[in-house]
Amino acid sequence: MQMTTAKLPKQPVATADLAGTTVTLCMIVKDEEALLGKCLERAAGVWDELVVVDTGSQDNTVNIAKAAGAIVLERPWDHDFAAARNFGLAAARGDWVLYLDADEMLCDEVKEQIRLTTKNAGVGAATLVFRNRLPHGNVHLSNLLRLFRRFPDVTFRYPIHEEVWSSLEPCLRRSAKRVSALTGVVEHLGYQMERAQEKNKKERDVTLLRRCLGADPTDLYSWYKLLEVASFWKDDELLTGTVNAFRGHLPALGGYGLAGFPFAGELLSMMVQGLYKADANAALLFLSPWADRISPSAAYHLRMAELWESVGEPLRAAAEFCKCMALRDVTRDQQLASVRPLLGLSRLALMRGDLWEAWSHTENALKANPLDREALLSALLICREAAGRGGVGDFVKAYEAVHGATLELSATLSELAAMPGWLNPEPVAA
Questions:
Q1: What residues form DSSP beta bridges with 187?
Q2: CB within 8 A of 319, min separation 6: which ones?
Q3: What is the largest distance, in Å, between two alpha-carbon atoms of the chain?
Q4: Which tens digits make up the pLDDT trace of 295-323?
Q5: For residue 1, what pLDDT is reported?
Q6: How many angstroms separate the CA atoms of 92 and 71, rounded?
Q7: Where does the pLDDT of residue 199 fall: very low under 50, low under 70, confident under 90, or very high at 90 and above?
Q8: Is 188 in contact with 131 (CB distance < 8 Å)?
Q9: How many Å apart are CA 215 and CA 271, to the nearest integer?
Q10: Which of 182, 230, 306, 321 has its CB surrounded by the most CB atoms within 10 Å?
């Protein structure tokens, strides 16, 4: 339901003589009437000045922003997010800058933390926890720097996935200010599949990232983000093409140049998916030398574990699954560093015929995410193995008593019913 402008919490537009610990909320928008009202309602009370850069809206976006008390600046879209951010930043007059998109919703806890942070003389910037809700109950958390003191020399760079740290860090160092990590959550709706498709994000991101790489083929971050786009959209052609193009520039990167790259594990994992999807041994030969050369990565250990599992090395696979799980607090990705390795350990236990251990790992995976389709299928298969169709029925009753009749459970039951042997009512093992 769209929010009417009458419901918006209008705040006074700040003037040039703002003093103390004032906060300017900076935004760039285009055709965001569906979410902007809700975003500004959730952000009420955290900002003293609202600067909105509109890049060509054809809907009611500008009126919603003005009704909330925004300074609205018009700037034609030129395929450069950093330029648009800097345009708004130049107009900001607050002591602090908070920047958000219309699909990012502040919770009350983080708003209180932001206000307390701006009163701390020793802090110059802060990260916020962004929560991305993915299909089937999966959640990805990430700490993003979105709040900083308005130093004169701070600007954004990169046309896409713009960042401010490279110019902010020297200012923090000179002023002896530190970065604080806030724990309050910001709900990010941008990569819910329907919204991403509506906003044509895939084509936009691919175009901008290729433009960045055309200007600098050694830009590891843009290569990584392009591979990430291909993986998110499950575009095998884009993934393989990007990996092959990236390999062509490896000599210029001086032997990959990945050792100090913070996303090296994720990048390598996506590379082997594009290079050696059907050849696990070749993938292991490619990945193994990097174990001690890159920063700890759950994605790297998970990929290694799955490869060792596929070539029949269960002990090595188990060790890698455990390394992956040990990084849960580092990655803050419950799907990557808990559900997936737990289900891997469950599969290894089933290979040994240990139903109880398999059930224990699967049960823990379901506790982390009750809607995960693979975890549900694992639970149903174990119950069928232990107690036939009656065991499946018992699981379904117990699950629905807690979580209700979810779509994920229904779809998994349909998948199970199509498997060979489903009609056999007797348990295979006691």
A1: 105, 131
A2: 305
A3: 79
A4: 899 999 999 999 999 999 999 999 999 99
A5: 30
A6: 10
A7: low
A8: yes
A9: 22
A10: 321
Q: Are strands 123-133 and 71-74 parallel, antiparallel or unpaired?
A: unpaired
**Whole-model pTM above 0.85?**
no
- The rounded distance, in Å, linking the Cα atoms of 384 and 42 is 47
Q: According to the model, what pLDDT value does residue 8 have?
A: 42
Q: Of how many residues is the chain composed?
A: 430
CB-count exposure of residue 44 (10 Å: 0-12, 13-18, 19+): middle
172, 153 Cβ separation under 8 angstroms: no
Query: Which amino acid does the sequence have at 76?
Result: P
pLDDT score of 253 more than 90: no
User: Mean pLDDT across the stretch 160-178?
Assistant: 95
Amino acid at 330: V
Read off the amino acid at residue 129.
V
Could you write out the DSSP letters of every residue in 301-334? Answer: HHHHHHHHHHTT-HHHHHHHHHHHHTTHHHH-BH
Contact 61, 36 (CB under 8 A): yes
DSSP annotation string for 171-217? HHHHHT-EEEEEEEEEEE-TTSHHHHHHTTHHHHHHHHHHHHHHH-T
3-state secondary structure of 105: strand
CA distance 157 to 353: 55
Interatomic CA distance for residues 197 and 193, integer angstroms: 6
Which structure tokens are listed for 407? 């779509």
pLDDT above 60: residue 240 = yes
Terminus-to-terminus CA distance in the chain, angstroms? 53
53-84: pLDDT as tens digits? 999 999 999 999 999 999 999 999 999 999 99
**Nearest to 50, CA basis, from 114, 117, 99:** 99
**Minimal CA–CA distance to 265: which of 236, 289, 233, 298?**
298
Q: Which residue has the tokens 């569906």?
A: 34
